[in-house]
């Protein structure tokens, strides 16, 4: 594509803002359309694994990230009933050494502000708030800017409006799991939580991930359990029945974990939905990235990372291909296999994390035998993606 071609991005979340920065790095200007009057990120914590942080470092954002995030020394798996350690993956300095990029944890709002500040500092990035793009995206963008864009990038999440303009897109489906997101003040934290570690507590049909958010002096808790289908998979649809289901999922867990769950505030109920296999672009001028294209369950903690990878790859394809259809085809060819492998890993983690009975015993034996080095090696393909010395795909 020509650098003079106009590019429009729908959505100013992590995917859309990263997309704008990656395009700017390749010499493209862009218009970013956000339906909200201002950016107010929902959710709380976010894990940025090395495959994602590597791209943000290349965009020049490391100093801003280091000012707010923490780099955990390890990622631990712990039995939720007994608090017995099951396995540990080295992170911290080991992550920088092994995967050539840091493993960071921070508040989603912090990352979004860093991206927003960077976008607003780019002369070629034009951000339009309170602009809802619906119906025909090409016509809507043309009406807003007076120009018909050469490319429209749908970065507007799982409930994407842009997806409606692409024939054969994947349907949104409830995954069968729900996430409860909670914030626990450091003063309420028990000894099983560590300020320098991400900890996943495992139990039958449920698991709980905990890690510190230094910006707000709290721990982020994400509890994932089985749940019933709902009419609309959206945030905050709470009820007494769902609260009882949540409490029942952890009633046999260690008392310290039960106490922390009870004392945590800001509990939010999130039905976890996915986007099934389907088209990512219309072979002409509209393409999807991130959750809009391939929303997945969070069992591999890769949702934001995949959106960041998508943005980097699509910007490169647009810069190197002669036109948008060729760029879309190359982007899809590169990303499909990667996304499929990450989905497979997430499905495996769900099976392993929520195991019960003999499967749980076998899981614990395998984890013990592998040890920290073996578990880190199992993640090379995921976390080492994009490292020049590895060229992992």
UniProtKB/TrEMBL annotation:
<dbReference type="GO" id="GO:0071949">
    <property type="term" value="F:FAD binding"/>
</dbReference>
<keyword id="KW-0274">FAD</keyword>
<keyword id="KW-0503">Monooxygenase</keyword>
<dbReference type="InterPro" id="IPR050493">
    <property type="entry name" value="FAD-dep_Monooxygenase_BioMet"/>
</dbReference>
<dbReference type="Pfam" id="PF01494">
    <property type="entry name" value="FAD_binding_3"/>
</dbReference>
<keyword id="KW-0560">Oxidoreductase</keyword>
<dbReference type="InterPro" id="IPR002938">
    <property type="entry name" value="FAD-bd"/>
</dbReference>
<dbReference type="InterPro" id="IPR036188">
    <property type="entry name" value="FAD/NAD-bd_sf"/>
</dbReference>
<keyword id="KW-0285">Flavoprotein</keyword>
<protein>
    <submittedName>
        <fullName>3-hydroxybenzoate 6-hydroxylase</fullName>
        <ecNumber>1.14.13.1</ecNumber>
    </submittedName>
</protein>
<dbReference type="GO" id="GO:0018658">
    <property type="term" value="F:salicylate 1-monooxygenase activity"/>
</dbReference>
